[in-house]
Amino acid sequence: MDEFVAKQLELLAEEHDAEIQENKTENTGIPFAALKRKGLCIPKLRISSLKTGLYGRTVTSFSSKTADKLLSSNTFSSGDVVQICKPTNQVLSASNGIVLSVSTKQVSIAFDGAEVREILDSLQTNDNSITLLKVANEITYRRLKQALNDLGKISRGPSQHFVEVLFGISGPISTAINEIQFCNPNLNHCQQEAVRLALSERELAIIHGPPGTGKTTTVVEIIAQLVKSGMKVLACAPSNVAVDNLVEKLSSIQISRTVDAGNKRKLKVVRIGHPARIHKRELHEMSLDALVSNSDAASIVRDVRSDIENLHGQLRKRPDKGTAYKLRKDRKELYAELAQREKRALQEILSSADVVLATNVGAHPKGPLQHLKVDHFDVVVIDECGQALEAACWIPLLNKRKCILSGDHLQLPPTIISHKAAAAGLSVTLLERLVKLHPKSVAMLVEQYRMNKVIMEWASKQMYDGKLTAHQSVELHLLSDLPNVLENEETNIPILLVDTSGCDMNESESESSDSKANEGEALIVYEHVTSLVEAGVSPGDIAVISPYNLQVEILRKLLQLKYPKMEIKSVDGFQGREKEAVVLSLVRSNDKREIGFLADNRRLNVAITRARRHLAVVCDTDTVNNHEFIKSLVDYITEHGEVRTGFEYGNDVDLDMDCFAELVTPKANSKSVKPKTKPRAGTKEKSSRETVKPASNKTLTPSLEDYKQRYQSTLQFYSTEHWDSRDFCDSLAALNIKRQHMNLVFDTKLNSAERKAVHELCEEIGLNHTSIGEGPERQVIVSRVKMTEPNDHASTKDSTEDSPSVPSESDVMHKEEASTCSSIEKTLIDDIKPDVVINFEDTGKVKPASSKDANVTTSLNSAELAPKSSNSAGDAIPYESCEICGKNLPQTNMDLHLMHCARILRMKASMEASKKTDNKIQSAPKKKGGAGKNKKQKQKEPQKDDDFEILNDAIASNRICCHGNCSSYVTTTGQQCAVCKRMFCLKHSLPEVHGCGSGARTQARRQISRDGVLYQGGGVPDRKLPADKRAALKNKLSNKVKTMEDSRRSAQKNKSK
């Protein structure tokens, strides 16, 4: 035992050091700006309200100094320990408090004691600026250390045999029990057997409860039976949430003493703990503070508190020094009287309670339990023991004679920051150790009431030796069985795998932490969740979980605003919870096939067993299959569930990918799995989606997103009515994937730079490409098959004009200006109609054209060129002819096409009117003095009645440097001024050059005063000197300035003489 205690103390100290290092905020010189970025402090606050509440504590509300301003982003949550600091990093003494609640505009904190009330009164009166600082809880470590030291001192006494049993020195003893009359008649057979075992064992009983088997219900029945037999019970759990669950269930139990079975009464339950850490308001009345306030001595206690409040009010009026001293003395005496009266009431309430509940750490002997005798409790019950450190369990177990442990050691252990301490044995819990040490004292619950049988069976086989069974009420339940939920392909499947292998959805890592994320998986999760909600599933019945916190943050950004009731948490944070539907993102996707802490079997077990009716797993099987345990899950879903490729979702959320992932091949003799897709709105539904298998095992080519980013400047520059970068990439993807034997002919309106971008992208992707035509009729043709050059001249022309070398901007502008009015009119009116046209004015869709000029491209099958008139469901897609140009188009595209045609007619009419005006001017007789007027009329620009033309002019104006008469182009090498937000060339980019010098200096001063440095990473912020040194330096500077001014005046006087 001594060796065990020494090792535990060493590992506990190492864990404590790691926790301090992670949450290092005190006395380290770290500026508040750095702590604010980590969410560990909230600066620039004021006290908005101050009152006595929560059973005598001072409840203070803090809000921003600026009215109605939101609080800065923070990690504060209910139950955290915080300190009050001044802006000078000065921590106020005795200012620790417990967070009650946190909102976007206010944080409420409960403080204990009279000293802190004086500090708060002063801060509120002076309206001081306050900073709240989150600090590590040193109390927990001290209590754990004290419990281990006390354990090492136990040598003799009534609890000696009990301790020997827990360390395997002695064996547990069983006794016979009488027939049990259960308080809960709905217990199943295995639950009843667990109750019998717990009552018959004299020192130790263990209830092993896998997910959904009702272990808390069993524990509540055990406690009720113990109380019926006249025993006093101390019930504990590692977290406040678990304790509250016990309190809630015990409060509804009615028992009768065995000697008088006719009279039933409720259990007397007392909850120990800070009221701020009791999450459910309805349970506050069972807290020790509330019971003391409502006891027989409550009226006297209330009078004392009223007197204290009156004294607070008099002190706020700022009386003279003598009166203030007397008032403080009276208040101190009242606080002492209040504590004495509450102590008596507390002792009476605890001794009369049937069950006292607290967290493991809250049950320490120097807390409220110090008012009871050492041997007051007959039995200690610890629920969720598998999530508690063993040292924490020894706090309530010391000096006791019997314990009943409940939990599941095959789920996640307690969170341990130090990996070294965890590997050395700190992660081994008391429950896990005793299950191996005394297997005959273990009762396992095997019938679960949560999961669909298909979801349950994998966990049962892999973790619980195939012992779990599903109750008939949940065995076959699905999402479609819920009220108001549609029955479709999403709600009729219990388990789904979305495989992202080969879809270019690689993981990414945060620069500020080791956590990882996968944006591609996040988008798939977003679409799947959306489809569930659209089917009628309530967002509150859906949980989205991931092992990585960074992925959780991304998912919250995507989903939380749209679905505020949906829970999005890490796997660790969701242990003990359940939802009707769970969507799990495993994140990991890399070439090395590393999976990190996904290798922890218990973490995946927790993630899978949270779902009741529907489970969706999104992962890269190529990466996760490197681990045998996760591979068993993939194989199981392949055999018993449904498998889809990530592209099916990626296409719906406009992910740019260059290939489809191969579907996971089912095992032999297994159920065939076909992926199902949901048609996008406004598109034709396909009967089935093709599966494109890679031709070889070569490395996948970069995605179209990579190409778009590579040529981002060019694509953004030409995002006009003739060109749209997204439609451009989608069109190439359609050709590269779906239309393997068709040609794409791009519009003649593309200029040389645009055609060059097409050629280079096609060269990278591996598509055939060429240009045909001359002048304004020149256009690009792209195809999958090898193309024959129309003529040598065109090929030669393209090698010079559309070669990979980038043409200069002046050449591009020269070619744009060289087009005459007649050629523009011809291009607009006489449309080229090859086999397949990419026209970005008609929504950028690939569409077949008429047979006119069909010789432009290679010959195609007429069936390929004909527009499809029906979808896979047989529903006819309506087509109609344009009233202006006569083209046959789908009705969904007709509105945009009519706008296009109307624009062309307006431009044509404008050009014809301009020509008529010019002809009249030329034919009219010249008059004396009219030459100047005609010259002005010729120079007068035509009125621009087209919004698109105005936008084009605005875009063209942004190509040139904004400084004076500078004509340099800023498309590729320009820089934006941070002050005026305009673009300048490199020569005029400095703010001092183009006239923003004063604004830049002001901005720099603000940056330095706020962050301490001008540029991020540009050095360490200067620490503020103490006030006395600053005053001395200020005086020294003033004296020096005065000396210099005197010398300058004397020099001027001498010069004047």
Tell me what the structure shows.
It is built from 35 helices and 34 strands. The chain is of the alpha/beta class and 1057 residues long. The chain has a seven-stranded parallel sheet with strand order 11-12-8-13-14-7-15, sandwiched between helices. Strands 1-2-5-4-3-6 form a six-stranded antiparallel barrel. It has a six-stranded parallel sheet with strand order 22-21-23-24-18-25, sandwiched between helices. Helix 4 crosses helix 12 and helix 6 crosses helix 7. The longest helix has 33 residues. The protein is globular and about 115 Å long. It starts with a helix and ends with a helix. Its EC number is 3.6.4.12. Its main location: cytoplasm. GO terms for molecular function: 5'-3' DNA helicase activity; ATP binding; DNA binding; hydrolase activity; RNA binding; zinc ion binding. One of its GO terms (cellular component) is nucleus.
Strands, helices and their partners?
Blueprint: H1 2-22, H2 32-38, E1 41-53, E2 57-64, E3 81-85, E4 97-102, E5 106-111, H3 114-126, E6 130-134, H4 138-152, H5 160-166, H6 189-200, E7 204-208, H7 215-228, E8 233-237, H8 240-250, E9 254-255, E10 265-266, E11 269-271, H9 288-293, H10 298-316, H11 321-352, E12 355-359, E13 379-382, H12 390-397, E14 403-407, H13 419-426, H14 430-437, E15 442-444, E16 447-448, H15 453-463, E17 469-470, E18 495-499, E19 508-509, E20 516-517, H16 519-534, E21 542-546, H17 549-559, E22 567-570, E23 579-585, H18 601-608, E24 611-619, H19 621-624, H20 628-640, E25 642-645, H21 646-652, H22 704-710, H23 712-717, H24 725-737, E26 743-746, H25 752-765, E27 768-772, E28 779-783, H26 792-801, H27 809-818, H28 821-829, E29 836-838, E30 846-848, H29 862-865, E31 879-881, E32 888-890, H30 891-923, H31 931-939, H32 947-957, E33 975-976, E34 983-984, H33 991-994, H34 997-1011, H35 1027-1056
Parallel strand pairs: 7-14, 7-15, 8-12, 8-13, 11-12, 13-14, 16-17, 18-24, 18-25, 21-22, 21-23, 23-24, 26-29
Antiparallel strand pairs: 1-2, 1-6, 2-5, 3-4, 3-6, 4-5, 9-10, 19-20, 26-28, 27-28, 29-30, 31-32, 33-34
Biased composition (Basic and acidic residues): 682-692, 788-800, 1021-1031
GO molecular function, one term: zinc ion binding
Catalytic activity: ATP + H2O = ADP + phosphate + H(+)
